[in-house]
Amino acid sequence: MSNYFKILRPGINSTFQDLGRFGLQHLGIAPSGCMDRSLFALSNKLVGNKISEGALEFAYQGPLLELVGESAFVAVSGKVNFNIINKNNEIKQGVLNESFILSNGDKIDILSTINSVYGYLSIFGGFQLDETKGSISTLVRAKIGPNNGDKLKIDEKIFFNTSNADLKTKKFEFDFDSDSTIRVMQGLQFDYFSKKSQEDFFSKEYKVTKLTDRMGMRLEGEKLENVISKNIKSEGITKGSVQTPGDGQPIILLSDHPTIGGYPKIANVITADYDKLVQKIPGSKLKFKLVDLSVAESAFQDYIKKLNFF
Predict the structure, then answer these.
(1) pLDDT higher for 88 or 9?
(2) Looking at residues 119-123, what average pLDDT do you find?
């Protein structure tokens, strides 16, 4: 018997993601992967998967899915408002960061994220997805990954693996970091910017605009003055790079970033603060704090310990 979810509503931006597709940037292919690694790992741990197992990532409004086939052991992670609707159309509010069982005919309705952007749905045993270059991550702009490299669509089927393992529900406490301070290191072209702009970047607030997606986050605030050159020779870039184009308004590159770029970079977000950053909704205010390599490395070690704790 086939076991699958029927997509009754795909949601705004629902894709399959794992930890990313690495080693291909020289071919112009970004690593992509989950936006919030902490919540991604948590969702897999809740259902007993290895933390690298592919999961369903959604943004703002998630999908409405109907289970067809055997029961499934699933979990939703994040700050998410969702319901479980049984086959008799009885509605029960879903419990976050806790695994649960869905039966044939049940629906899961992921209504919205709450003051955040991304959430995750994982299933024990994983979804049946074909890998591309060792990863199931979806890079929509390049049409790479499962589902023909595209977002979920209505009436599609999501097949999953099943197991007779005797599983016990799990629950984890998860503290959402609501702090608005993002730690960064100096970018390669930090000295391209005037002393005043360097000071402004670390003392003034910047607002997250609606021009934000998996590729980048455009900010609005004090204009940064470039006193050397507004363009550079294109060079390799990474997620977290804070580029500053000619209008002086910073853009933070995110998981689906281009692999090269020609705008000067004033800073780079440290890995330990990336998950917190990507959950900031449009209208949020950010402040940046300059740290050195030793602080970034120490924060990264704490971050890895947190991931392994789940």
Answers:
(1) 9
(2) 97
Neighbours of 134 (CB within 10 A): 12
CA-closest candidate to residue 29, choices 147, 146, 142, 150: 142
Structure-token pair, residue 55:
């999961």
What mean pLDDT comes out for the span 98-114? 96
Q: Which CATH superfamily is domain 181-309 in?
A: Cyclophilin-like (2.40.100.10)
Distance between CA atoms of residues 289 and 159, nearest Å: 44
Q: Which CATH number fits domain 4-159: 1.10.1740, 2.102.10, 2.40.350, 2.60.120?
A: 2.60.120
3-class SS letters over the chain:
CCCEEEEEECCCCCEEECCCCCCCHHHCCCCCCCCCHHHHHHHHHHCCCCCCCCEEEEECCCCEEEEECCCEEEEEECCEEEEEECCCCCEEECCCCECEEECCCCEEEEEEECCCCEEEEEECCCECCCCECCECCCEHHHCECHHHHCCCCCCCEEEECCCCCCCCCCECCCCCCCCCEEEEEECCCHHHECHHHHHHHHHCCEEEEEEECCCEEEEECCCCCECCCCCCCCEECCCCEEECCCCCCCEEECCCCCCEECCCEEEEECHHHHHHHHCCCCCCEEEEEECCHHHHHHHHHHHHHHHHHC
pLDDT in tens, 233-267: 999 999 999 999 999 999 999 999 999 999 999 99
Distance CA 54, CA 136 (A): 6
**Length of the chain in residues, anyone?**
310
| Whole-Å CA distances, 237 to 26, 206, 249, 257 | 11, 22, 18, 8
